[in-house]
Amino acid sequence: MSFDWQTTYAAALAAFQCEPPSAQLEADILTQFQAHPQAVINAIAKVTKQYQAGTIRSPWGVLKLEIPKQIRADITADSSTNERRRIERADQWLRNAGSHYPTWAEVEDELFNDRGLLAGRDDLKDRVRARWETLTNDAVAA
Length: 142
Prior knowledge:
Blueprint: H1 5-16, H2 23-35, H3 37-53, H4 59-75, H5 80-96, H6 104-112, H7 125-141
Helix pairs in contact: 1-3, 2-3, 2-4, 3-4, 6-7
């Protein structure tokens, strides 16, 4: 995704409907934008709502304080829920379809290839293989 400082800055000027920031403050915000454009855009949106609601009077000063909060929020995003869901879906697939695959190599390819549910999670291969072996042994015994 591409971000444009001039467009973002113009939108902030229009939204804040006040004097532009000092040259130093603009340079500080631009520096943050170059490193974390989405965080700056998110901060502008949040400050715009506060300014339009009348809860703040100095949007540029508040923006300077809000950007680091948005950067931290972006960096500390928790993906554990998404990761857990991927593992649960892989286990469901293993029970429903994977247990019918004749070889581990086919199961491994299905789950761990570039588009597989567990792509990039080679640390789970031993655990998944043991689960597959248990499922296939149970199916043979039944």
